[in-house]
UniProtKB/TrEMBL annotation:
Keywords: Membrane, Metal-binding, Nucleus, Transmembrane, Transmembrane helix. This is Transcriptional activator protein DAL81. Residues 46-76, 81-100, 615-654 are annotated as: Disordered. SMART domains: Fungal_trans, GAL4. The lineage of its organism: Eukaryota, Fungi, Dikarya, Ascomycota, Pezizomycotina.
Length: 674
């Protein structure tokens, strides 16, 4: 027997026109009885009639609501291949049933989306290069309209001039591509239905302040009219990442959570399908998706770099004829991609995709970020916008130093060079000074101790990135050490250099260990950059390198390093109950410590191993650290702060580990401070 549609869900357009009840054959039915009898699908474009005045035709043509699925978030996304290479749910026959607004210039009233270059609906843009099959210099002989558009040269594609040396081919989506894209959007929305709007709120409360690559108002404007105005990857990636903080929503915490891994896999497939006609929202979605712990892939980073080049994001857009807000979006997305590439190269041990001579993006300024502290969400468990903006800016500036570090020491040619320790230290000096100056310029508001009650803080990933950069520099220097030299085998003066560089390297590891001890629950539960879990492992592996390169006869030194490594593993282990992204590092270090024990016969595995950690996914809500008190760092049950017992006068925010150049100056190596 057919059942009436729940009162809180609107009738479909066919039933509304006939002024009849919307009946469904079962709770699982997608289309109502009337639409099934006519072999059509239910659409929800028309708004309920108003008593005093009708809605404008433009609004009627572009409003849709969430698909009326019962328990949709528990149903798998069933995809079928389309002829255009995309995938779509089999229940959708055609997107023509739902009117689609192609040109946002036709929107009534005020909108940020008018006259944009890369944010038009159902249209992609591709930059024209200087050596391709179209010479941009031709355009100076062609007339164009006030939008910079030229007469169609390759209909239906339109050539558009964005700047003096920037030309784009604007290509409308075909009907088949629209069908597939709308079907994918419906499948994504159905998977989380009816929780899509709440997941969007979570994302902009917790993730977006610390990773501000979307334009919040633009996304909300589109999503507010219809989720179908977004792209599948842009919408799906927001949902995937927001699911990690499901319990941080009062509306969702008591409900069953959709399987994020299933949605993630489908969105990832959709991302690889858009390579022929990428939009900037696809690139944004890809960058958001790479922050998920299960997605880490160097190949995906290369895919995103190619998409960005197709969109011209590596070019300077300062003088382009685009809205100021779009210029800010392009710059933020470009620098987010730059960070993705450089940190991916570091943690995966690969060569960077982005060349310095093919990168012409201007530095970010405060005006490139439209939101301010007054836009902070007051709900508990949200992140601070201003702190997130500063964190993002500082991460970009640190990444530029890391890029120089990788080019100096870790390209294939650099790795083949036979450098003496003196040569290596000379090359490392400017980078060491840059890192030191970067840390000294850290705004006070980004210290670990600067937390606000009931607010999350993502500054932890910034500090971790700094320690990772420092240790990566020392890893390069330690390559010159090789196996520990025998006494008397070093040239005069080299013995001092050898000992001093090892002490400086050990000091860096100890400072990283103290950093992990000082992390609070507000840090554990916040957004962490994709490289964080591997960065923690790199720090521990560095201690293993120090152990393995100790002098053969110096058993005490070697055991001291093993003890420090065991302490580091223990600190990560007890904190991983509230920050599961740390479990990957614990698993890697468990395996590495066992190798050290087998090699040197010492008790390198002092702590019982935590099984299956290397493959454990990160979920900020996992374990017992959720919204709770701070996790005890040394296992004595006393909570945060006891790690510094006996050194009450130590202020870790102002304490700076002596730099290499300071240590070397103390023994007269001729490497003085400026």
């Amino acid at each position: 027997m057919a059942s009436p549609r729940p009162k809180d869900l609107r009738p479909c357009d066919n039933c509304r026109r006939r002024k009849i009840r919307c009946l469904f054959a079962s709770d699982d039915a997608v289309n109502c009885v009337l639409c099934d009898s006519r072999s059509t699908q239910c659409t929800y474009v028309q708004e309920p009639p108003r008593k005093k005045r009708a809605l404008s035709a433009a609004n009627d043509d572009n409003r849709t609501s969430a698909p009326p699925a019962s328990g949709g978030h528990r149903q798998p996304i069933q995809m079928v291949a389309s002829a255009g290479g995309r995938s779509r749910p089999s229940r959708h026959k055609s997107a023509s049933d739902t009117p689609v607004l192609r040109d946002y210039a036709q929107l009534p009233g005020r909108s940020l989306l008018k006259e944009t270059l890369g944010h038009q609906n159902r249209q992609s843009s591709s930059v024209l290069g200087a050596t391709g099959d179209f010479d941009p210099s031709w355009t100076r002989f062609l007339p164009c309209n006030d939008k910079g558009e030229f007469p169609p040269l390759r209909p239906p594609q339109i050539l558009r001039r964005a700047g003096t040396a920037a030309h784009f081919m604007m290509r409308p989506d075909t009907k088949e591509e629209m069908d597939a894209e709308l079907a994918n959007l419906d499948a994504i929305e159905k998977f989380v239905y009816p929780h899509g709007p709440e997941l969007v709120k979570i994302y902009f409360r917790i993730v977006h302040p610390s990773f501000p690559i979307l334009h919040k108002n633009v996304f909300l404007e589109k999503h507010g009219r219809s989720y179908r105005e977004l792209t599948p990857t842009g919408l799906g990636a927001v949902y995937v990442l927001a699911l990690n903080w499901w319990s941080y929503s009062h509306a969702l915490s008591g409900l069953p959570k959709p399987d994020a891994k299933v949605l993630e896999a489908k969105v990832l497939t959709m991302l690889f399908d858009v390579h022929r006609r990428p939009k900037i929202s696809d690139l944004q979605g890809g960058l958001v998706l790479t922050q998920s712990p299960n997605v880490g892939s160097w190949a995906l980073t290369g895919h995103l770099v190619a998409m960005a080049q197709n969109l011209g994001l590596n070019a300077d857009c300062t003088d382009w004829q685009i809205p100021d807000w779009e210029r800010g979006v392009r710059k933020r997305v470009a620098w987010a991609l730059y960070m993705q590439d450089k940190w991916g190269a570091l943690v995966y041990g690969r060569g960077s995709h982005i060349r310095a001579d093919d990168w012409d993006v201007m530095p970010l300024t405060p005006s490139d970020f439209p939101e301010t502290a007054k836009d902070d969400d007051r709900e508990e468990g949200s992140a601070e916008i201003e702190k997130g903006r500063q964190t993002f800016l500082r991460m970009v500036s640190l990444t530029r130093i890391v890029a120089e570090l990788l080019d100096t020491f870790f390209t294939l040619r650099a790795l083949k060079e036979q450098r003496t320790l003196h040569d290596m230290l000379a090359a490392a000096k400017p980078l060491q000074l840059e890192l030191r100056a970067w840390y000294a310029a850290m705004p006070p508001g980004l210290s670990l101790e600067d937390t606000v009650p009931m607010k999350l803080s993502s500054v932890g990933y910034l500090h971790l990135a700094y320690y990772t950069a420092e240790i990566t520099l020392h890893r390069a220097i330690m390559r010159c050490h090789g196996p520990a030299p025998a006494p008397g085998s070093l040239a005069p003066g080299d013995g001092d250099l050898y000992a001093i560089t090892r002490r400086a390297a050990e000091a860096r590891f100890i400072s990283a260990l103290e950093f992990v001890k000082r992390l609070k629950a507000e840090h554990f539960q916040s957004f962490w950059y994709f490289s964080s879990s591997i960065s923690l492992a790199i720090i521990g592996i560095f201690a293993g390198v120090l152990c393995a390169t100790s002098r053969t006869e110096d058993v005490l030194e070697r055991e001291d390093y093993i003890n420090k490594l065991a302490e580091y593993r223990w600190v990560l282990r007890v904190r991983s109950t509230g920050a599961e992204f740390m479990k990957y590092a614990v698993g890697i270090l468990d395996a590495g410590s066992q190798l050290l024990e087998e090699q040197f016969g010492l008790h390198a595995t002092r702590v019982p191993p935590l099984l299956d950690l290397a493959s454990a996914p990160w979920t900020p809500n996992g374990g017992g650290g959720e919204k709770g008190g701070e996790v005890d760092g040394d296992g004595d049950g006393e909570g945060e702060g006891d790690a510094d017992e006996g050194s009450e006068d130590t202020n870790w925010d102002t304490w700076v580990v002596p730099s290499m150049d300071e240590l070397l100056t103390s023994v007269g190596t001729g490497w003085p401070l400026p």
